[in-house]
């Protein structure tokens, strides 16, 4: 890895029209992760349709999310939205007695009419606590991208977490259960047993925070959560994110060094999965070598994924766009990316489209709203949102991650071959 890489590279900052999902989308994976939580979106029918469409796979199960619809009378100020919200919450909690955490999720409509959900959460906590804790956060897409919903949710939980002085590792960021189990098994093999998780599956398992807490981020979009944890005395452990064999090894090595794990123990625990990951990446990434990739800003995974593709898969990055560039969080991954690509923060979608058309990259990683138009222009695309919903962290998923990027290129090559015959 380069000593500096792209750490000191200039950043093109754009503040124009953006093409991203809103933070409500994060509820789709958060409500599966927190088993005794319920996410009540205070929004419009459009918000409800978005969640129902994004989480359509839950149609045969009773989901742990819903929408308190703001009607025209609410939006016009002809009804007391706070009173109506109280009634909806009381009705929900009387029917769903399993709810221990109730999240009031702000939306674009609730923020436009200045509905004070923080005040509502305080009032509802007094009514329904301590059995059910009521927390508010914003999932509005007015100024944010969709992964910031998780960041806002976790950051809102931090102030009420219990205090502790003990030395511990806290892993922050929602991971699929199978991936989380793999991570905990690796840490346990190194002798690190007492691992706190944020978010926890249940309210009773919520972590305690204090000056002995060392935070390893599992997701790169948790800047506000990290700041909230640091205000509670926790300390950030900088590391590349655990994508691919090298990223995972560096992430685990930073933790091992912090907790004094012997080099021989680290090698014994990681050698076999590292070897499997290297083989899997080498096999899956064959179509990626020497191909160019262009990242549109979407998920905030762009920088660590660009590190994975350029360092481990042999791709050439043309532009790495990200909604927000948090240097404290992204520094280790930036240091590993060789100088050359344009770094951009924010988006002016028309200007960025012009740059992509001029570059004609082999692969464009972008949101759903841009994929079809770019495909119609002959540019091969990868949906960025799929990289959030698919298990891609740590060793056992390294080959799958490379395969997600290789698949569109294989499809394009196959279509060209078919057309030639």
TrEMBL record:
SUPFAM superfamilies per UniProt: Helical backbone' metal receptor (SSF53807)
Cofactor(s) the record lists: [4Fe-4S] cluster
NCBIfam families documented for this protein: DPOR_bchN, PRK02842.1
Protein name, UniProt field: Light-independent protochlorophyllide reductase subunit N
Catalytic reaction equation(s): chlorophyllide a + oxidized 2[4Fe-4S]-[ferredoxin] + 2 ADP + 2 phosphate = protochlorophyllide a + reduced 2[4Fe-4S]-[ferredoxin] + 2 ATP + 2 H2O
InterPro entries for this protein: LIPOR_BchN/ChlN (IPR050293), Nase/OxRdtase_comp1 (IPR000510), Protochl_reductN (IPR005970)
Record-stated family: Belongs to the BchN/ChlN family.
């Amino acid at each position: 890895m380069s000593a500096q890489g792209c750490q000191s590279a200039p950043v093109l900052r754009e503040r124009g029209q953006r093409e991203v999902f809103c933070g409500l989308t994060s509820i789709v994976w958060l409500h599966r992760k927190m088993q005794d939580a319920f996410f009540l979106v205070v929004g419009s029918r459009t918000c409800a349709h978005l969640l129902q469409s994004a989480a359509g796979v839950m149609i045969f199960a009773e989901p742990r999310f819903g929408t308190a619809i703001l009607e025209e009378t609410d939006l016009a100020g002809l009804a007391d939205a706070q009173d109506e919200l109280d009634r909806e919450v009381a009705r929900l909690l009387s029917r769903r007695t399993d709810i221990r955490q109730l999240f009031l999720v702000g939306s674009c409509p609730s923020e436009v009419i200045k509905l004070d959900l923080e005040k509502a959460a305080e009032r509802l906590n007094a009514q329904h606590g301590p059995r059910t804790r009521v927390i508010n956060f914003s999932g509005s897409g007015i100024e944010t991208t969709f992964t910031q919903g998780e960041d806002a949710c976790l950051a809102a939980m931090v102030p009420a977490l219990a205090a502790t002085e003990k030395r511990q590792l806290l892993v922050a960021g929602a991971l699929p259960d199978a991936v989380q189990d793999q991570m905990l098994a690796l840490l346990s093999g190194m002798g690190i047993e007492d691992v706190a998780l944020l978010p926890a599956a249940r309210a009773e398992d919520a972590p305690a925070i204090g000056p002995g807490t060392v935070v390893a981020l599992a997701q790169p979009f948790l800047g506000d959560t990290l700041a909230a944890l640091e205000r509670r005395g926790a300390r950030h452990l900088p590391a590349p994110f655990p994508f691919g064999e090298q990223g995972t090894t560096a992430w685990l090595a930073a933790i091992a060094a912090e907790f004094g794990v012997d080099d021989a123990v680290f090698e014994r625990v990681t050698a076999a999965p590292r070897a499997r990951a290297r083989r899997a990446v080498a096999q899956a990434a064959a179509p990626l070598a020497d191909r160019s990739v262009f990242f549109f800003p979407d998920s905030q995974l762009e920088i660590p994924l660009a590190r994975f593709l350029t360092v481990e898969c042999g791709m050439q990055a043309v532009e790495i766009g990200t909604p927000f560039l948090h240097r404290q969080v992204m520094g280790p991954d930036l240091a590993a990316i060789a100088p050359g690509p344009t770094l951009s923060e924010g988006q002016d979608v028309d200007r960025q489209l012009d740059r992509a058309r001029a570059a004609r990259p082999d692969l464009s990683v972008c949101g759903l709203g841009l994929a079809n138009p770019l495909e119609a222009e002959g540019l091969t695309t990868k949906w960025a949102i799929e990289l959030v919903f698919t298990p891609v962290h740590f060793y056992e998923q390294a080959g799958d991650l490379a395969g997600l990027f290789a698949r569109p290129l294989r499809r394009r090559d196959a279509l060209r071959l078919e057309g030639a015959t």
